Every structure is written in C-alpha cells, then in structure tokens.
Amino acid sequence: MGVSFLSLHTVGLEVAARRLAVLEVAGTPVMRHWYVIHRERKRLSPVAEAFKTFLIERGAKAIDQALG
Question: Rounded to an integer, what distance in angstroms lies between the CA atom of residue 52 and that of residue 4?
Fold first, then answer.
C-alpha cells in the first residue's frame, strides 16, 4: 500500500474504476497557475495552435468540471 500526491486529472479513469481512492486531506486541492508559452519566432503547427487556443479559451472551465 502506498500514498501519493497526484493530479486528479492524471488518475481520473483509475478513480472512476475504483482502482484508486481519493483521500480528503486538509489544504487540498492545491491550486497552481499555469502558463502557455512558446518561442516567439517559432511558428506553431495547426495542432499546437488549436491546443493553445483550447487551453486559453476553455482550459479553466474544463478543469473546474473535472474537479466537480
């Protein structure tokens, strides 16, 4: 048996399948600031540009929904 500190997003399928359990711990969830960066002179591929747009426009909402 072990205990780990992981993002719920990372182990969501395992939690849903009851292979892992989420423990209530004071001071969690830990909220972090996320940044989307890339080299200014590097042209992003269409897929990378679409992912960047998704993160900026809908990323926060997707995380809020995942946390329930």
Answer: 30
